[in-house]
Amino acid sequence: MAISPHEPSAAPPLRSWRSELRALLSWRRILTRLRAVLRSALVTFVVLTVTLWLMPGVESNDIVDTLGLVAIVAGVGAVLRPLLLLGVTALGGWGAMLLGVIAQIVVIVIALEIDPAERITGLPSLVLTAILAVVFAAIVDWMADSGTDDTFVREARRLMRGVRRRQARLAGGPFLTFRRPRQGSDPGLIMVQFDGLSEPVLRWAVRAGNLPTLGHWLRSGSHAMRGWHTGLPSTTPASQAGILHGATRQIPAFRWFEKDTGKLMVTNRPRDAALLEPRLSDGRGLLRDGGVSIGNAFSGDAAVSLLTVSHAALPGRSARGWAAFMASPYGFTRALVLGVGEVFTELHQARLQRRRNLQPRVSRSGAFLALRPASMLLRDVNVSLIAEQMARGAPAIYCDLVDYDEVAHHAGPARPESMRQLESLDRMLGVLERLAPEAARRYHLVVLSDHGQSQGATFRQRYGESLDEVVERFSAGDEAETIEEPTESEPPVENATPVAPLLVVSSGNLALVYLTKFRQRLDRAAIDRVYPRLIHGLVAHPGVGLVIVRGEDGPIALGTSGRHHLRDGIVHGVDPLLPYGPRARHDLLRHQEAEHVGDLVLISCVDPVTEEVAAFEELVGSHGGLGGWQTEAVLVHPARWPVTDTELDGPDAVHHQLVEWLAMLGLRTRSAAADETLQLEREAQEKIFESPESPRLSRTHDG
What we know:
The chain is of the alpha+beta class. It is 47% helix and 13% strand. It is built from 22 helices and 18 strands. The protein has a seven-stranded mixed beta sheet, with helices on both faces. The protein has a seven-stranded antiparallel beta sheet with strand order 10-11-16-12-13-14-15, sandwiched between helices. A two-stranded antiparallel sheet has the order 3-4. A hairpin with a 2-residue loop joins β12 (544-551) and β13. α6 crosses α13 (367-392) and α21 (651-664) runs antiparallel to α22 (670-686). It comes from Paractinoplanes lichenicola.
């Protein structure tokens, strides 16, 4: 009698168990496990030997006793680490971070406590010994890997296999299996953002052979590289508002003042980012269909947001990648120890700049000493979170890696230390490639940046005073007349931030100047009545290249020897836009339509030969305005994928291109793709101030 597919049978389970045993006892798996055990034992032996030798009062350091202690550490770890991982997972957030450090110390303390040799006694000595052992273990492991990411990859693979097996059990699969899950066949898309990387810098680094992963992609023809123009402002929040939400014009700078509420907005403050996201989101964000946002300013309407500024929370209990990274001896603890090494590296590199009198340069002390190792730690955490989401089968993942941008701000965008950070990001792409066989989907990788950086001595270094001081000097003793102040019948502004009558808000070499007494944005005539010397003084200052102000017939860009009427393109005298490139007029016009733009918009001078700018902040590498490479971002994508617009102009254009690729892969719902088409049509009708030669976006098509 034939057995129907729904009737139980003893044969399939028997064959299944035989298959499981063959998978468990395969010689490759046994050899891999044996090698891992021997390596772990050797590292533990070396670490314990050195630690006990350094501890005062330890008379015996017998090899046999130490080998016994190695076995005890392994046994205690085998029992405690799974329990500690459960605790770390249950805590989530800051609790996971704290317990992750303590977990490694607890294992060593308990092992030393039950050591028959009793060489360390007393809780203070036990804890000190454990801390030293953990630090030495991180250093020895790093040296054993020759500075590679092999250990990190092994831990990430273990995490991914655990996640996939757990998902299989929840879906009705076997409770226990020794088989390694196969890579999924459905497509997925991972978008990795290299924060602050300009297209010319990346192209040069690839040609120099310093980026083996990206270089291999491009030389093999699997991927293509193209530049895209960010426009103004060239900042991460504005670019991500466009890339993730298609809403660049909601953000005029990295910082700005809102006259209607009296608030100074700073986009890297979680509470401000949380206020901004509802303005950006229309429900059609890049990640709306089950996507994941990791380490970004905004969510892109993602189903899962991890380390996203606008959500202002650390990953919770559901993010097993966060817990696994914190609990692993090769995760948070290792990154913490190596991060301390980054601080010493930074001090050494800063000292070399001073001794060589390298110019331009800025101070690299203070908060930056903590920021540099923090960005390295965040990179490793982000990649662990990406690995987890790859195992879960997230259809689309967008992650921002900030290492290069943070170092380039203080060292310079093309300096050796910045290139070192770029090389480490290239290694992370290699890590993701190595993790791909463990993923629940067949992922495609797209690499892009949000803006570039421009180098130059700062405004203060060049002229001995800050822009705030210059504005104060040109406005002192003025305010001869007043203009239409709010009447008593108007409602008071709630939660208003106390500000000066003239407020200067800088973002790189872009500055917005606000006359805060007046709710409406003022034109040139009104500003001249209140501060007669202000505009003339700023235009004449050698550090200010452009002053943009509203005139009777639209915005005007004023320079030392001429002016440019942006709406009709009429130029009087020498065109002040010439040093800023052929797109400057288009960029400034688009920026004038942004919400909450200043009464005056200032762009620093730019050297026509070196393309160096004078940042209004104390940063040797800056972005936010115009000039140099700060507006030249990059996009690396699979070479065979169609590109709708050969000249991607602005973050919104990149958003629409990514949406088309998602639709092509079947990862964008039909209704969402149709929404994007309608949105493009509306935007095409609204572009009334753009220059005729500006490239336009073509319609989005369902894939």
